[in-house]
Amino acid sequence: MRMRHKKHGAERIAACAELLIRPAETPADPQTYFPVSRPISLEIGCGKGDFAVGMAAKNPDENWIAMERVPDVACLALEKAMTTKNDRPDNLRFLIGNAQNLSALFIPHSVSAVYLNFSDPWPKSGYAKRRLTHAGFLALYRELLVPNGLLKFKTDNVGLFEFSLEQFAACELEILWQTRDLHATEKAASNVMTEYERNFSSMGTPICSAWVRFPEEVRNV
């Protein structure tokens, strides 16, 4: 569903400038966007920001970057984070951009974990290369992640989950953990839900999830 254009969106985003990353002309160390150096976690497709805001608060020993392609959606995430101004930790920043440009945004091996939450499944077969778990994107994550860095993936779309497992295997990713019903597992207690996840879980839709990493011996360094 297409989001209605936000009135005064540019001005609203500008009002949240303290949380917004302005990309450098050359790939940058993401640590430079934070006052304190900590392991970097990157959420690609942060939506309205529930997950990133929740995880940053829950994990103050990590720096969080929430990336969103659509400015009108990023506006809502930024404003959500700004509402916690008095209690907001200094470990959360937002980036408006496309995951295809990751190699131009950040230096190699600078991110500890990549999170993909309810990414667009692009169900038509001709659009497979647009899926964020396609081998082409996995190659970008391989370059971006530190040694033993993790990719954590959640989706309600069984077709996308099965496709993703096939891509992980084809790219020789090590699957550390997987489930087709996240909320029935031991990890449910520590799971931070997105708005999308809450809505679909309330209707009884099971959530698929996988945690994977690239084995060190096949990593390009």
Model description:
The chain is α/β, with parallel strands linked by helices and 221 residues long. The chain has one domain (9-218): Vaccinia Virus protein VP39 (Rossmann fold, 3-Layer(aba) Sandwich), CATH 3.40.50.150. It has helices at 9-14, 50-58, 71-82, 102-105, 135-144, 158-170, 195-202, and strands spanning 40-44, 63-68, 92-96, 111-117, 145-155, 174-179, 208-213. A seven-stranded mixed sheet has the order 3-2-1-4-5-7-6, sandwiched between helices.
Beta-strand content: 15-25%
* CATH first level: Alpha Beta
Cα radius of gyration in angstroms? 17 Å
Spatial separation of the terminal alpha carbons: 40 Å
Task: Look at the structure and name the CATH superfamily.
Answer: Vaccinia Virus protein VP39
User: What is the string of helix and strand elements?
Assistant: HEHEHEHEHEHEHE
CATH topology value: Rossmann fold
Main sheet: which strands, in order across?
A: 3-2-1-4-5-7-6
Indicate the structural class.
Answer: alpha/beta
**Approximate shape:** globular
- Overall number of structural domains: 1
* Unreliable residue runs: none
